[in-house]
Amino acid sequence: MDPRVALEQHFGFPAFRPGQEEAVQAALDDRDVLVVMPTGAGKSLCYQLPGLMRRDLSIVVSPLVSLMQDQVDALSRISPDVALINAQAGAEANREVLERARLGQLRLLYVAPERFSAPAFLNGIAGVDVGLFVVDEAHCVSQWGHDFRPDYFRLADAARWLGAKAILASTATATPQVARDIVERLRLDDPVRVTTGFDRPNLTFAVVPCRTAADKHARVAATLADPAARPAIVYAGTRAGTETLAGKLARDLDCEVVAYHAGLPRDTRADAQRRFMGGDVDVVVATNAFGMGVDKANVRTVCHESVPGSLEAYYQEAGRAGRDGAPARAVLFAESRDKGLHVFFIQRSQVDDALLMRVAERLRARAKDGRYDLGIDELIAQGCEEEQVRSIVGHLARAGVIQPAPSSPDRLRGRVLERFDGRARAACRAS
Ligand code: ADP
Ligand code: MG
């Protein structure tokens, strides 16, 4: 069937958006595809449509269950052949879904990345005729991306093990380094690259120089004083900063303002997000933890109370304004000492060569059957700061020497995959 006819039939859309048709056609032709488009451009359709058109099963991996659930809910209205497997659903429900997959009754199956290390899932899915293997938010595979997920490391192996006919990776992260990492780590074979522009014509950008923190806060309040400037997201540099500023804005604007950061209890955080998304609260002050999955169409202003860590992060955060296409503003409030903070973080994250050499030697000394445990606990016991351990793991993983174990990303445990062949030394020298 002509993809254009299928588009109308399944989704009721009269036309493809830029890049979509090319991606859909490539996915129907069993080609590997790398889709790089800004948020809101319509990346999901690039795999949903071929998934629905193909006769085999397409597996979609995405980092957040809530993102997958949203897609499954929306697709369920147009097709009964879509399902989700995740740890929250009961074992029985998951078994039923797998049974339907085995019977060839499903077109699209959404799967959380950590499922690929669950034996029950792997046993259940083995032997199913898998067509597309989709990796959404594929920048999560790269340590250079802003949402690195060790679970994503497994996906290339999983896709091959399943006998998937093609891999489609999609992301809104446009840096060449991340694209390279995606192609390499997912082992995409001569992928069709579909990229659209990253211009956001309805956004205006401004930088406001500030002298002091108090000056900054007053200017943020002034920017948001007009109700037409809201809903608004204010990004603050630190967790404590979000709470202080939220309190101040609530007083100055005489409206409710919620704070959001990773240190808040899960319920408080979910509640803040839900109330902002639902329109009960018009201003949220957040750290960069307020990110993926935040897709509110009518955000009129995104303020940055401090300079973000990278241009990429700024693009993603500022880009949460004006998703509905109506005019919106991104305003960065900058103070000269903001730079000092970043220099401090950069210096702290740098590992000295001597330390890396010691780790490399330690790994080599433990050579056994080509497999090694990276003694993270020991490193910590020896006085390595968490930041340094993170950095060491990052260096060794980038050099391909170790693969952080997906089951416990926070513990930073690592397992050496290949014989130690001097690559760690190279990584040390390169650092
Ligand atoms: P992304 O993943 O790139 O951020 P989504 O896939 O979530 O974006 O799509 C954003 C919105 O655009 C969705 O509401 C989707 O239904 C809509 N959309 C996608 N493709 C089309 C199209 N061809 N015509 C009209 N609307 C579309
Ligand atoms: Mg998306």
Describe the structure.
The chain has 431 residues and is an alpha/beta fold. The protein has 17 helices and 16 strands. The protein has helices at 3-11, 20-28, 43-53, 65-76, 91-102, 119-125, 155-162, 176-185, 213-224, 239-253, 266-278, 311-318, 338-349, 353-365, 376-381, 386-398, 423-430; strands at residues 33-36, 57-61, 82-85, 108-111, 130-135, 166-171, 192-195, 203-209, 232-235, 257-260, 283-286, 301-304, 328-334, 372-374, 402-404, 414-416. The strands form three sheets. A seven-stranded parallel beta sheet has the order 3-4-2-5-6-1-7, with helices on both faces. Strand 12, helix 12 and strand 13 (328-334) form a beta-alpha-beta unit. Helix 9 (213-224) crosses helix 10 (239-253). The longest helix is centred in the middle third of the chain and has 15 residues, at 239-253. Residues 367-372 and 406-431 have low confidence and may be disordered. Adenosine-5'-diphosphate binds next to helix 3.
Q: What ions, cofactors and ligands are bound?
A: adenosine-5'-diphosphate, magnesium ion
Distance between the termini: 52 Å
Largest sheet: 7 strands, parallel
The average pLDDT score comes to 84
Strands, count: 16
Arrangement of strands in the largest sheet: 3-4-2-5-6-1-7
The stretches of 5 or more residues where confidence is low (pLDDT under 50) are 367-372, 406-431
Helix and strand content put the structural class at alpha/beta
Q: Quick recap of the structure?
A:
The chain has 431 residues and is of the alpha/beta class. It has helices at residues 3-11, 20-28, 43-53, 65-76, 91-102, 119-125, 155-162, 176-185, 213-224, 239-253, 266-278, 311-318, 338-349, 353-365, 376-381, 386-398, 423-430; strands at residues 33-36, 57-61, 82-85, 108-111, 130-135, 166-171, 192-195, 203-209, 232-235, 257-260, 283-286, 301-304, 328-334, 372-374, 402-404, 414-416.
